[in-house]
Amino acid sequence: MQKLILLFTKDGLQYQIRKNKSVLEEHSFFKNEDSTEHFVAQKLAEVLVKNNFAEIKVVSALNHFALMPEEFKQHELGYKLISYNASVNENEEELMLSINKKYDVQFYYTFPKNLYQKIKSLAKPVSFNFSGEKFLNNISSKKKNEIHIHLYHHQCEFIALNDKKLILYNNLDLNSEVDFLYFIMFTLKKINFSIDDTYFFVYGETTENETFISELRKFVKNISIKFDNLHKQNFILN
Q1: Global pTM exceeds 0.90
Q2: Rounded Cα gap, residues 44 and 118, in angstroms
Q3: Do 21 and 77 fall within a single domain?
Q4: Does the pLDDT at position 18 exceed 90?
């Protein structure tokens, strides 16, 4: 049985078609200055029309989210919680929930309704997940203070762990080395992590973002590349 896996980021769409553990097809589409407003929706339609799959898995890395403890049950507040981090249009965004039992947290997040409806209209088995939840599931913790960074195309996810407990998760645009380093240094100070005693682990589009990693190495002594995305090998999609 073939499975379609879709990853939505702030400016693009990536997908794989898999059969068991084999990747049969993989492609990425990213906006540029000439792209239309409906670029992602158009590319999604091109992928869906193939219809050579029996199941769909969707991962959203769009940074409309709110992180809450797993025991929080006031789900009707989901839109309001997200609105503290990003502007929300309830008429155009579907409210979703992903629960991570490994760290006892849950993510409220929104997904564009037009894309949601396109996917659901195929009437195939489909599951939705938030990238932050999957990121947490994909990492392991062994040190006291750890920073895990997942790099995308012009975007990154950031996780801080202390004694295997989640201290912070964030999802932000990656526009310049200066902004990236400022965010890391500011965050370390805010959560009271010593830079010399903190271990950094990097995943994802590490080759594309080599400049960011090189700048980070100037300030951080404990850093390792854990996963470099290659053709048909993707940290989140696999």
Answers
A1: yes
A2: 8
A3: yes
A4: yes
